[in-house]
């Protein structure tokens, strides 16, 4: 299977030591009970009191406290629990391997009465498909997947929009005209983000060059630290990451350089170094999914890819060191992404060998973006495994 817009099966590398224990769903499961109902002057109808909450389970690849990808999902889980109150009961299993063990976790979730199950990493796709076939009365939701069935649908967020907006900041704030990216796995999802970051930066500073160091893991703080330091040693003074820990940002701070938070707001970990955070908010989609089930309108065989317009992507906590005119650039870009007047992928766009990838006047569609496997002008080097 070609590299796609997905969370890679290698994402677990930084957590292999925890995988065995996490695979035992009964041991790893954590439940968050619905908050108690507030007292009312009149008694609730007996039918409402007897109504059981919708049980919802989440499978996480990493720890809920990674302050990145998994943390963003768990924050959204908490948000829907608070919003829906005693109508739902959520639980999660963290550090679930992208392997056959995931099937056991999903099967356990279904047999324990969960009627809505979220798998938050690409490698869960095949296990979820298998379990979904055995539990047709359960609704399954797969993050970043591309296969759907009558009781399984997929969803994703347009992280490249956040990458473009922080690229605007990076292009204006760099003094060396050298940007650095700590890449996780060289799949289209990550390559898109590197390219969008560079397109944003070069739209305001054509002299910018972007260096990339790959760590081949989604969460490996030591490797992320080493990669960040290597980029700084190579002249980069503003760093971006597509990894899940705060190591890149903290390494930038130690070297008195700049960086960005990724997937969630990381400003508090290095406020002086954090120029802004490109964040994902899964709450809008999770709210929709829960409402669909509660209202009886949930349908399978669908894929959803949301961005700024739907409230799934944003840039937050912009540093006070960022000039007002640069903040205005971000605000205008956000408005353009919201109303569709800004198209990041409108041609002409060339790769870094000079080959035209998107012709003048044309725009890339989602199919093209889903298989994107090239560096744009300004990014140094070659995509690992690319032509």
Would you kindly provide a written description of the structure presented here, covering whatever features stand out?
With 387 residues, the protein is an alpha/beta fold. It folds into two domains: 9-36 and 49-158 and 282-306, 3-Layer(aba) Sandwich (Rossmann fold), CATH 3.40.50; 159-281 and 313-370, 3-Layer(aba) Sandwich (Rossmann fold). The protein contains 13 helices and 15 strands. It has helices at 16-23, 25-28, 46-50, 69-84, 100-111, 125-134, 159-173, 188-204, 221-233, 247-254, 283-295, 324-339, 366-370; strands spanning 29-32, 54-59, 88-93, 116-119, 139-143, 152-157, 178-183, 209-214, 238-241, 258-263, 274-280, 303-306, 313-316, 349-350, 356-358. The strands form three sheets. It has a seven-stranded mixed beta sheet with strand order 1-3-2-4-5-6-12, sandwiched between helices. A six-stranded mixed beta sheet has the order 8-7-9-10-11-13, sandwiched between helices. A two-stranded antiparallel ribbon has the order 14-15. Strand 2 (54-59), helix 4 and strand 3 form a beta-alpha-beta unit. The radius of gyration is 21 Å and the shape is globular. It starts with 15 loop residues before the first helix and ends in a 17-residue tail after the last helix. Mean pLDDT is 89; it is low at 1-29 and 33-50.
- Tally of separate domains: 2
What is the beta-strand fraction? 15-25%
Could you say which overall geometry the principal axes of the C-alpha atoms support? globular
Name the CATH architecture of the largest domain.
3-Layer(aba) Sandwich
User: How many individual β-strands?
Assistant: 15
- Average pLDDT across residues? 89
Structural class: alpha/beta
Topology as H/E string?
HHEHEHEHEHEEHEHEHEHEEHEEHEEH
- C-alpha Rg, in Å? 21 Å
Biggest sheet record: 7 strands, mixed
Tally of separate helices: 13
Helix percentage: 25-40%
CATH top level assignment of the largest domain = Alpha Beta
Going by CATH, the homologous superfamily of the largest domain would be Response regulator
Q: State the separation between the terminal residues, measured CA to CA.
A: 16 Å
What ranges have pLDDT less than 50 throughout 5 or more consecutive residues?
Answer: 1-29, 33-50
Order of neighbouring strands in the sheet with most strands: 1-3-2-4-5-6-12
CATH fold topology of the largest domain? Rossmann fold
